[in-house]
Design a protein that fits this description.
Number of domains: 2
Strand content: 5-15%
Number of strands: 12
Number of helices: 12
Distance between the termini: 65 Å
Bound molecules: iron/sulfur cluster, zinc ion
Radius of gyration: 25 Å
Order of helices and strands: EEHEEHEEHEHEEHEEEHHHHHHH
Structural class: alpha/beta
Oligomer: single chain
Shape: elongated
């Protein structure tokens, strides 16, 4: 990867900017980051070395553009056309533009932009739900060939499935904030967006934990050098079909604590076996019901990304379906939230057996509790 900073300096625009690293770094050397100026690297894509070949080559990978500013900053309006010209000339390079100003995109594109350029990827930053709901609808309507979403620093829970399901976003990444004043990032927020990506078949990267990371309600303060490595090690990045989630370490919940929690949930505790279910179980016997449970778990839950996930378990029609809702074994989201079993992985035989045993424990308790 290469970095091309044609200008330097920026203006804060939304919550994600609060602890902007450009400001932090500039302050540390007594510089004012709100002063925007063209850099000596403005024409980097056209610069050549002594041998006469380009300094930036396709072999070096993606060129990240404007990492110490925002490409669509109004203060840079007069310099942007020159950058488009260079991107047009260097069709061999893939340029990535990360922006919090997607609402300025249309007034900033060159006349021959058309439906977008193949070698330019636009990455729209969304740090919270409010900015997601403002920026993503705009982002989806614009003429862009390659779209990515970046939630960094992630500042709260974000739901974006309705935007992801449009099939236009190619990649999503999430991560926490770095620096001395970093705001916390919760693994549950990462898991939520990740599950949405899995359901939509979109690659997802858990980029970094940030300095303050919450996992299972506990807050961890992480040293800078661990932010990227811990995220990588966690296994929470996802590429369809790559079994990356097998690396996720988790522990199944304590069985008694789980059943107590289910009882305390208004939604879960509403589910009970109906007369018809009881008759059916009495007729078939528990062994048969258990084999049905095995079958449902294998067919509807065990693949990496089950079909219709979240809606695959009817509310009634079989005692096992009722048990699935009562015990939060109805879909991969509920299995992750209640049982810690990661979404986005093929369930092992042991995991399937665990789910079946939870279902049967609930069914047997219901049958004994007439
Ligand atoms: S848009 Fe980016 S570079 Fe500009 S102030 Fe915000 S975080 Fe910093
Ligand atoms: Zn569910």
């Amino acid at each position: 990867m290469s970095i091309w900073n044609p200008w330097h300096g920026c203006r804060k625009i939304s919550a994600g900017c609060l602890n902007c690293y450009v400001y932090r770094r500039d302050e540390s050397i007594g510089k004012d980051a709100s002063v925007v100026s063209k850099t000596g690297d403005y024409d980097l894509p056209l610069k050549k070395n002594r041998q006469g070949s380009y300094k930036l080559t396709a072999e070096d990978g993606v060129v990240f553009c404007c990492m110490t500013s925002d490409f669509f900053l109004d203060a840079a309006d007069e310099w942007r056309q020159g950058c488009w010209d260079m991107m047009r000339e260097r069709q061999d390079l893939s340029f990535h533009i990360i922006t919090k100003r997607i609402d300025r995109f249309e007034q900033c594109i060159p006349p021959d932009w058309g439906e977008g350029w193949d070698n330019v990827t636009i990455c729209c930053t969304c740090e919270n739900q409010d900015r997601t709901d403002y920026r993503l609808p705009l982002f989806l309507k614009l003429p862009i060939k390659h779209r990515e979403v970046i939630c960094e620093p992630m500042l709260g829970e974000i739901n974006m499935e309705k935007y992801l399901s449009a099939g236009l976003i190619e990649h999503v990444s999430c991560g926490g904030e770095s620096g001395p004043d970093a705001r916390p990032c919760d693994l549950r927020w990462i898991q939520e967006v990740r599950r949405e990506c899995i359901r939509c078949g979109i690659p997802f990267t858990f980029r970094q934990t940030g300095a303050v990371f919450i996992k299972d309600g506990r807050t961890y303060h992480l040293d800078r050098k661990l932010h990227l490595s811990q995220a990588k090690k966690s296994g929470y990045s996802y590429i369809p079909g790559m079994s990356m989630a097998d690396a996720i370490k988790y522990t199944l919940p304590d069985r008694r604590a789980l059943f107590d929690r289910l009882k305390r949930s208004d939604f879960r505790s509403r589910f009970h076996l109906a007369c018809k279910d009881r008759q059916y179980i009495a007729e078939k016997g528990l062994d048969t019901i258990q084999s049905h449970a095995r079958d449902f778990v294998e067919k509807r839950l065990s693949t990496e990304n089950p079909e219709n996930d979240g809606k695959q378990t009817p509310m009634k029609g079989h005692p096992v379906f009722v048990a699935q809702h009562a015990t939060a074994c109805c879909c991969r989201s509920c299995l992750e939230k209640w049982h810690n079993i990661p979404a986005g992985k093929v369930l092992t035989k042991e995991e399937q057996a665990y789910i079946v045993s939870v279902l049967m424990e609930w069914i047997e308790a219901e049958m004994n509790n007439v």
